[in-house]
Amino acid sequence: MSDVFEKCRSWKDYRIAKATGLYPYYRSIEESFGATEVQIEGRRIIMVGSNNYLGLSADPRVKEAAIKAVERFGTTCSGSRLLNGTLALHEELEQRLAKFLNREAAVVISTGFQTNLALSSILGRHDIVFADRQNHASLVDGIRLSFATERKFRHNDLDHLEQLLQQAAEKEPKAGKIIITDGVFSMEGDLCNLPRIVELAKKYNARVMTDDAHSMGVLGEKGRGTSEYFGLEAETDLVMGTFSKSFASLGGVLAGPQEVINYMRHKSRSVIFSASMTPASIAAATKALEIIEAEPQRRARLLDIAEKMHNGFRAMGFDTGVSVTPVVPVHIGDQVKCFRFWKALHEAGVFANPVVPPAVEAGHALIRTSYMATHTDEQLDRVLDIFEQIGKKLDIIPQTRPSSYTPVQIARPGTFVLSNKASEKWAAASAGLNGGNGFSLDQLSRMSSREVAGKLFDAVESLTWRAANLQPEDLRKLGQMPMKLWEKRANLPGMLLEKGANLLIRNGHEDRS
């Protein structure tokens, strides 16, 4: 008889990563020093893995506002917005956000994820959603919860979007249509092609919604996000934002036509069946909004930092892909090497985020860095130095800097850039090609039977555990190995996982390096 828990017991990825010391997640932060540095396991390290873009989570004014709200209203509202959970603070923030975003109305919801789930309330059986394949998981789930038909278009491929729109116009002419896309894509930092999306929406009578979680407070002259950046606010029907990034709080907002927002207030399960934002969260977001409006120099500083880091990495030979924003991904490619790079960064005093499939395409693992307006030049230079040292050690960048590189253009007000040109290596990885390095474990799992894939994972796990728990016999055999391997004995756990997996999946093509 099948056991619903069996999948949990047989899941090996966690044990493999733990055994090799390459498990990067759920790192406990013990203390924060102005947000740009944190303490982990008693060590103070530079934080370049946060979405606190304007550095407002450590601003004394924001913290004071949160404290005063707790003193006035307590720690929680103890109920949903529909019933007892609406404070004057909620209504004030909604009114100010509607004005800030040039919309008729706005509704604030407890988390950013729940904010996108609220979309399901307006998507009915006779509606079609056209969604970018790289949209955030919260958008994916919000659409899935609805009764609408979903049609996904290839990432930023607007010709493909038009094909889908044309098919819908011919086969389902009476269907309601909406195009939903991230404004800034959270892993790779590029922008949606909003001008073309708006053009197609007008042509095929579709609505448009942007998820501006990573652009609200960051892009545009006033920080209103992607639609302001492109000068298309009037043509974008719905806009979503989160408070856990530039707004230094927790929660989210949907803004748009009054009738649509009012409908969501009364029909969205994530609004009416969830406790409302806490007084502290609301007050912090409100104060952050005041600062965003009053201090545009923070955005300017943030974009200067983004340009410095993009070009600093590229000057060393790293590839930062297509990003034009303070989301600065560093392409690694191989998943195990990405984890090894993360570990070396962590040990050297830099907190960054390893991103592996399914968050990115197979063969496209990367180190995601993101920056705050409050980072100092000294901190940034230290990060660049550490990345260069580790990049050379792991043979990700050349030992000698390239003689030239293509500089990055940042999405500053008035530039209207969408993305930067990525290298062939990055493009190949995005397409799922591994450039002759053998199949990835993910690809092999899809190509093979369950039995073969299972045996492969068992073999890799066995290699890993032996590497992590060397016995006397293992040490004797290692003493007989070539000097090149012996010199790398400190890296054996990661090496055996990486090399052992490649040996198994290259169909017998031995790698003796």
Automatic annotation (TrEMBL):
Gene3D superfamilies: Aspartate Aminotransferase, domain 1, Type I PLP-dependent aspartate aminotransferase-like (Major domain). Keywords: Aminotransferase, Pyridoxal phosphate, Transferase. One of its GO terms (molecular function) is transaminase activity. InterPro entries: Aminotrans_II_pyridoxalP_BS, Aminotransferase_I/II_large, AON_synthase_class-II, PyrdxlP-dep_Trfase, PyrdxlP-dep_Trfase_major, PyrdxlP-dep_Trfase_small. PROSITE patterns: AA_TRANSFER_CLASS_2. Its cofactor is pyridoxal 5'-phosphate. Residues 45-385 form the Aminotransferase class I/classII large domain. Belongs to the class-II pyridoxal-phosphate-dependent aminotransferase family. This is Aminotransferase class I/II-fold pyridoxal phosphate-dependent enzyme.
